[in-house]
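The data are set out underneath:

___
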Amino acid sequence: MTRRPSMITRSVSTTALVLALAAPLALAPVLTPPAQAFFGGFGRIVYDPTNHTENLLTAARTLEQINNQIASLQNEARMLINQARDLASLPHSSLQQLQQNVTRTQQLLDEAQNIAFEVQKVDQAFEQEYGTPDLSMSEQQLLADARTRWSNTMGGLQDAMRVQAGVTNNIEAQRAEMATLVEQSQGATGALQASQAGNQLLALQSQQLSDLTALLAATGRAEALAEAERAAATEQGRIQRERFLTPGIGYQPGNARIFNN
């Protein structure tokens, strides 16, 4: 006796056939029109490629914005670091050394013998000791004035040599300071440090010019005193010769003393 297929068997076969026909469609979503996600009756979620693509683009744009913000923060940090370097002060200062050099040279000038480096004292000395001798002046007074002028000349020459020695002693300190400042300038990390190193180099040059000015002043003073002494001696010799040749006085022999020796 032949048995007929039951209703359950026919239902299972029909379901299997439907699934077999629907499988190629599920595996080829590109060929189907976009579908919107929804919850089916059995709790399944339909995949929406358009929504997924938009979500990916949004995430990419957000990531790009974050990267741009990070790059901007990095640039601002570098700018602040550079500004901090530009505002950093030079760790070395040559001011004290330069002031000491200038002070030593100034002390040598202040110790000028007999005639100081002052206009009033120079005028007073030349009026008293280097002016035209008076015809009525005694020989003893003429000799005393000549000795004073000679002493001034010798003092001026000694002062010039002392200033020369002081300026020469400053050369080594200036050389060492210049080497330090150049090294500091080359290793400067910011604009302020480079500027300060340059300013200190200019100050060092100014101090060297001050030494040169002092040396020229002392040397010129010594030369001026020597020339003034020769000029005064020439005038004094003329006065003494005129006295000797004046009628009625004549030559009177006697003991001569020069410079009270």
